[in-house]
Amino acid sequence: MSIITKKDGKLEILTAEGISAPHCFTTRFGGVSTGVLDSLNIAIKEGEQAENVRENIRILSDALDFDMNALVTTRQTHSDIVRVVTKADHISCFHRDYPECDALVTADPGTALMVFTADCTPILFHDPVTGAVGAAHAGWRGTVSQIGAKTVAAMVEHFGCAPANIRAAIGPNIGQCHFQTDADVPDAMLEAFGEEAERFIRVDGDKYYVNLKEINALSLRRAGVVHIEISDACTACQPHRFWSHRVTKGQRGSQGAIIVCKEVGQ
Ligand SMILES: [Zn+2]
User: Fold this and answer.
1) pLDDT tens-digit profile of 91-127?
2) What total number of domains does the chain contain?
3) Could you tell me the distance, in angstroms and rounded to a whole number, from the CA of residue 236 to the centre of ligand 1?
4) Among the four residues 46, 62, 63, 143, which has the most C-beta atoms within 10 Å?
């Protein structure tokens, strides 16, 4: 089981073979936005026209077959807040007034969840037994505060999921090849995860290179998740294909990680 690339016309998305619910990690390819937002920008931001975002989401809703009015998103603040959402949250994804959170979970069929990234780590979750799904945005701070493991805990608490049944997929982020930091990041990782995290940190002079995908996977394994697929894509290695916050110095669009809740057995 691995993360694979799917192309349909100009649209290019990544999916995890082990997750049977409709889902994807988006790339820059397949949308209608222009300039630095060329082309599949899914976030409302300065310099972007709302109709472009709406059309980009519509393209994704067509590809994954979900109702774009049932898409619930986040207002991300590098918190460790996991929000439980239901049909009552199907208001519209085209505003910024969502409550603060960095992860979403639901067991309400028809509901689609989306988080935004552009170097940070997107993680998607699906429990094929209960049908529950989750989506998390883990920056390095979210990784330290174990937002992924907290998403699993919310699925256990609210939907009765068994962690061993949950399928998790870790999407494109800034890879260890490019995530250069000072001592503060590795220090925080070692404090949170202990010496087991040491093998995911490379030291080069007074700089450090941290493997956020593997540290998130470690956190998920400790939460009892066994089925974890990890993308090998680095946003900074492929800036033509993904937006990288570091490479673009913030002049960028956003990728999305989307998952749709379905009735069990469908
Ligand atoms: Zn890289």
Assistant:
1) 765 666 788 999 999 999 999 999 999 999 999 999 9
2) 1
3) 5
4) 143
Which residues of 118-240 form beta strands (DSSP E)? 121-126, 133-138, 167-170, 180-181, 201-204, 207-210, 227-230
Query: 198: CA distance to ligand 1 center in Å?
Result: 20
Contact 217, 155 (CB under 8 A): no
Q: Kindly report, residue by residue over 33-49, the tens digit of the pLDDT.
A: 999 999 999 998 888 99
The answer for residues whose C-beta is within 8 angstroms of residue 155's C-beta and 6 or more apart is 105, 125, 127, 130, 132, 134, 161, 166
Residue-range definition of the domain harbouring residue 109 = 3-174+228-260
d(CA 241, CA 49): 21
How far does residue 138's CA lie from ligand 1's centre (Å)?
Answer: 17
3-state SS of the chain: helix, strand, coil percent to 5?
30, 25, 45
Which tokens is 192 given?
């949170």
Q: How far is the CA of 182 from the centre of ligand 1 (A)?
A: 17
Q: Are strands 23-26 and 255-260 parallel, antiparallel or unpaired?
A: antiparallel
User: Residue 227: what are its φ and ψ, rounded to 5°?
Assistant: -95, 100
Strands 255-260 and 112-117: antiparallel
Q: Whole-model pTM?
A: 0.98
